[in-house]
Write a structure and sequence with these properties.
Blueprint: H1 2-37, H2 40-53, H3 57-73, H4 77-89, H5 95-111, H6 115-128, H7 133-144, H8 149-163, H9 169-185, H10 191-205, H11 209-225, H12 229-242, H13 249-265, H14 269-285, E1 294-295, E2 298-299, H15 301-304, H16 306-320, H17 325-351, H18 355-358, E3 372-380, E4 383-390, E5 393-399, H19 403-419, H20 424-435, H21 440-445, E6 450-453, E7 479-482, E8 501-505, H22 518-530, H23 551-567, H24 569-578, H25 582-594, E9 597-601, H26 607-616, E10 621-625, E11 628-630, E12 638-640, E13 645-647, H27 648-654, H28 659-662, E14 665-670, E15 673-675, H29 684-692, E16 695-701, H30 707-721, H31 728-740, H32 748-751, E17 754-758
Parallel strand pairs: 3-6, 6-7, 8-9, 8-10, 10-14, 11-15, 14-16
Antiparallel strand pairs: 1-2, 3-4, 4-5, 11-12, 12-13, 16-17
Length: 761
């Protein structure tokens, strides 16, 4: 009888194993199909599931390597590199698969300027590719990118001759389009090869509309480069027509945009407007799967996609400036709707996911409370446009300042504020002249008391409170709030009630010093080598920031830092002293006397302790007084608890207790956080953290504030906020003015850093 049972279980196990293997294979095939179609998020989901089901080393390697390819296409370079290396190092799977993973890793490393390593990887991949002619030629095209121009052209001509031996038209076309792109980069010398390659694709395309459209679009670009706009427009039109009935949004968005630009240059405004609108529609259709690339913390979005939205906005604004009042209002609302898509995309790319922002969107912020004006600057290459809403009206103001001039002056003001220099009012007055002076009479006529600014680009680096009219700072006349977009925060007020507050504070760090990000580790080591903080100087809430920006540097920094911690007790004491915040203890002490609260101080402010408190109680206010940094992405943004780091995603999970779903948190204050210097994406961190955690308002700082000044400002803010009929924006205004009246803190460096983001009521 026992043998019958054993036989039964063996059969059952065999069926289960076969089913699992079939499911694994199906998921791998599905992921590869999605990858070919450019549906990266679906490919990622399928391959993550396949990784979970992988049993053998070969299955694991295939799942890792293929997911690495997908993540590379999504521009998630760090994770892609980890998985590609893991798949390669396993030495499992087919040799052609490993060759493909190596070639992708080589391309990734070449993009990070690691050319020697990339060259070595390409050579190894070529040797592994056996008799796969297509793969070999693809690897040679990668190697060609690393060659000097003259040698590169010679190699590209050789590859062109070899492509004819590839039997499948689709495979030939993919290689030829890559080759044509490289030849075009070589300008005059490469033009004949680029033309020949694209004409060959055109011949091979046959009944394949997408290939034909790519070839025609490539040829149009060559004509456009030579200023043959009539021929280029004709070819763009043919390329667009070729895709009829085919799903090709990714291709069409560029074709329509390029055609729109040419129409615009030729003053064919109606045709340009229609082409730009179609391009934007194509982006929106595939927004989720468009990869955004990061270089040195900068998103490629502004360079690749934002110009399409801005081109449409530019044309609409030009039309609005000459339209009747009713038509003007319609056009200006359409402009704002278009620019809102840029702001939404920037936040999505900062946070690393589309759904994080889409789910937070509300109706357009219109018909705001009386005595409130919404100022919406739009930076265009040749001018600054201001859209100002008061009540249901929206007005347009055009300022003849080009984007470069505005950028230079804004950065000078940001720099002067951070360094507390004497020339701050000179730069602040110029910005006032461009941003506020044109609308002064409108604000006065409507008795405006609160300004809600929706800053664009470099203007995010500037606290509008510090703008100066020659006699007064803007904060002396208006309460001011900032918003990352008109549709991203609910403008309705909540019923006034006593705040149930969680105070989480760290005046002296604990075990968190073992978990600092490498960029801070390096800064700490450098500061220690120079001699840490001089006690006679005013202390700021600044984190020491290093410059490690590649994996080799990061490994070296981490190793040196950990070794110092383990072997040098004095270094550990110096680290703790560098990162101490004595003003935090005073700030919390004052607030604790009159604010209903739960306090987590130093050793009680652990990640676990913080999580338990948030889950247990539905706090309306969470005040975190500890070091933090908002970098260029959510991944480089964090807050320090006593024992460990909390990044934005972790904070999101901590603050998304079920108790907050019914009653959203009213305010999240980060009184010792800072934004990465000079990066105009970094201020998105404050908006991002509020959106992800479903927080109505967030209060934080644009630069490391003076420790003693912050300890004075924060209690003033909360005292004012508790008063009936006082909005959060007015409470911040009160606190900033109180600090300004103290001669010791009258420079805007001390009080202007703090900004209120989101709901201002």
């Amino acid at each position: 009888m026992r043998w019958h049972h054993l036989f039964f279980w063996l059969i059952l196990f065999a069926d289960f194993a076969l089913g699992a293997a079939n499911n694994y294979t199906g998921l791998i095939n599905q992921g590869q199909d999605y990858l070919r179609q450019g549906q990266y998020y679906l490919a990622q989901d399928a391959l993550l599931a396949a990784r979970q089901m992988a049993v053998t080393p070969t299955q694991q390697a295939t799942a890792d390597g293929t997911l690495g390819l997908v993540l590379y296409r999504m521009r998630h370079f760090q994770r892609a590199e980890e998985l590609l290396r893991k798949a390669i190092d396993s030495n499992a799977g087919e040799s052609w698969e490993r060759a493909r993973w190596m070639a992708t890793l080589a391309e990734l490393r070449a993009g990070m300027d690691a050319t020697e390593e990339a060259s070595s990887l390409y050579t190894e991949a070529f040797n592994l590719s056996s008799d796969d002619k297509k793969l070999k030629l693809g690897i040679r095209l990668g190697q060609a990118r690393l060659m000097p121009a003259e040698q590169r052209l010679k190699e590209l001509n050789s590859i062109y001759d070899n492509i004819a031996a590839i039997p499948t038209p689709e495979d030939r076309a993919a290689l030829l389009i890559n080759l044509a792109g490289q030849a075009r980069e070589l300008r005059e010398a490469g033009l004949p090869l680029a033309y020949n390659s694209l004409e060959q694709v055109r011949e091979d395309a046959g009944h394949q509309p997408r290939l034909l459209a790519e070839a025609l679009g490539g040829l149009a670009r060559l004509y456009e480069d030579q200023e043959r706009s009539e021929d280029a427009l004709s070819l763009y039109s043919q390329a667009i027509q070729a895709t009829e009935g085919v799903e090709a949004h990714d291709l069409l968005l560029e074709l329509e945009w390029r055609q729109g630009r040419l129409y615009h240059r030729r003053q064919q405004r109606t045709e340009a407007l229609m082409a730009y609108q179609r391009a934007v529609d194509h982006i929106e259709a595939i927004r989720q799967d468009i990869p955004v690339e990061y270089h040195h913390g900068r998103s490629s979005f502004r360079e690749t996609l934002a110009p399409i939205y801005l081109g449409l906005a530019d044309l609409l604004l030009s039309e609005a400036s000459q339209a009747s009042e009713e038509r003007k209002t319609q056009l200006l609302r359409r402009v704002r709707k278009t620019v809102e898509l840029i702001k939404q995309s920037e936040l999505e790319d900062f946070l690393g996911g589309r759904c994080n922002v889409q789910s937070a969107r509300t109706s357009l912020l219109d018909n705001v409370a009386a005595n409130t004006a919404v100022i919406y600057p739009i930076i265009l290459p040749d001018r600054l446009e201001l859209l100002v809403s008061i009540g249901s009206e929206i007005r347009q103001y055009i300022q003849p300042v080009d984007a470069d001039t505005l950028q230079v002056r804004s950065r000078r003001l940001a720099d002067s504020l951070r360094k507390a220099t004497d020339d701050v009012t000179v730069h602040a007055e110029k910005l006032y002249e461009w941003l506020i002076a044109p609308i002064e009479s409108e604000l006065s006529r409507n008795n405006v008391q609160t300004l809600v600014i929706v800053p664009d680009g470099v203007l995010r680096l500037i606290p509008m409170a510090a703008l100066y009219d020659g006699k007064q700072y803007l904060i002396e006349r208006y309460a001011i709030a900032s918003s990352s977009g008109l549709t991203l925060f609910n403008p309705s007020p909540l019923a006034k009630r006593g705040p149930k507050t969680l105070l989480a504070a760290m005046s002296e760090p604990g075990p968190v010093i073992d978990h600092l990000p490498p960029v801070i580790m390096e800064g700490v080591v450098r500061s220690d080598e120079r001699g840490y903080h001089n006690e006679r100087e005013p202390r700021t809430r600044a984190l020491p920031i290093g410059q490690a920006n590649n994996e080799a540097q990061i490994r070296k920094v981490r190793s040196a830092y950990i070794e110092k911690l383990e072997k040098d007790p004095q270094f550990m004491l110096n680290v703790k002293k560098q990162l101490s915040l004595p003003g935090v203890a005073k700030e919390v002490e004052v607030m604790s006397k009159w604010l209903p609260h739960t306090l987590l101080m130093n050793s009680d402010f652990t990640v676990k302790g913080f999580k338990q408190q948030v889950v247990q109680e539905p706090y309306s206010v969470v005040h975190i007084a500890s070091h933090g940094l908002f970098g260029g992405t959510a991944e480089t943004s964090f807050i320090m608890a006593y024992d460990n780091i909390i990044n934005i995603d972790e904070l999101d999970r901590l603050l998304k207790s079920d108790k907050f779903k019914q009653q959203p948190m009213e305010l999240l204050t980060l009184s010792a956080c800072q934004t990465a210097e000079g990066d105009d994406r970094a201020p998105l961190g404050l908006s991002g953290i509020a959106l992800k955690a479903n927080v109505r308002s967030a209060l934080g700082s644009l630069w490391p504030v003076d420790d003693a000044a912050a300890a004075k400002l924060m209690p003033e803010f909360y005292k004012a906020m508790l008063q009936p009929e006082t909005s959060k924006a007015q409470a911040l205004q009160h606190a900033q003015l109180a600090l300004m009246k103290d001669k010791q803190y009258e420079h805007p460096y001390f009080w202007a850093s703090f900004i209120l983001v989101g709901n201002w009521l």
